[in-house]
Amino acid sequence: MKQEFLIWLAQWPGGTPQLETPPRTCEFWQYSAKGSVPGITGPVDLDVCYGDYPKEEETDDMTGEQIFNALNTYLDTLPVPEWAVEELAGAKAAGITDGKKPMRLIPRYQAAIMALRAETGGAPAQQDGSAITEQPEEVEETPDTALLDSAT
């Protein structure tokens, strides 16, 4: 029988598995879903590969900022889902967001700012969560404020 697809077998034997020989013909065998790895909380899958794969060439690692920017570049190409259009319009009308580039990732501090704006009816909030009644003076744009302006 011709095999068109590689088989990833998930079968958990009782006792200690004999990793040299899988229980059935397969390319990969997931022999446990209860493994442990230092630094990871909770159980992890344990697998063995029987294929012969070339080692990937080493590439330069991307920095967090490069990943963030690459994801946002991709997300800028996506339309707002239909189910979110009305909610986004409401958030923009309420002053929670400017609605620009709505598919972009935002850092947690910006999510907190948007949540406080929602609680204060769109007004900027003070540290205690109450609305600021006077607008602050213009702040010189820094990378953080530029990110904040472009992501809201």
Keywords:
3-stranded mixed β-sheet; 152 residues; elongated; alpha+beta; 2 domains; 4 helices
Describe the structure.
This protein is α+β, with helices and mostly antiparallel strands and 152 residues long. Helices cover 30% and strands 11% of the residues. It contains four helices and three strands, in the order βββαααα. It has a three-stranded mixed beta sheet with strand order 1-2-3, with no helix packed on it. 5% of the residues are buried. The mean pLDDT is 78.
In brief, what are we looking at here?
With 152 residues, the protein is an alpha+beta fold. It has helices at 64-75, 82-93, 108-119, 143-151; strands at 8-10, 28-35, 44-49. It folds into two domains: 8-49, no CATH class; 64-151, no CATH class.
Overall average pLDDT: 78
Structural class: alpha+beta
Q: Rg, please?
A: 25 Å
Q: Which bin fits the share of residues in helices?
A: 25-40%
Largest sheet at a glance? 3 strands, mixed
Shape: elongated
The total beta strand count reads 3
The side-by-side strand order for the widest beta sheet comes to: 1-2-3
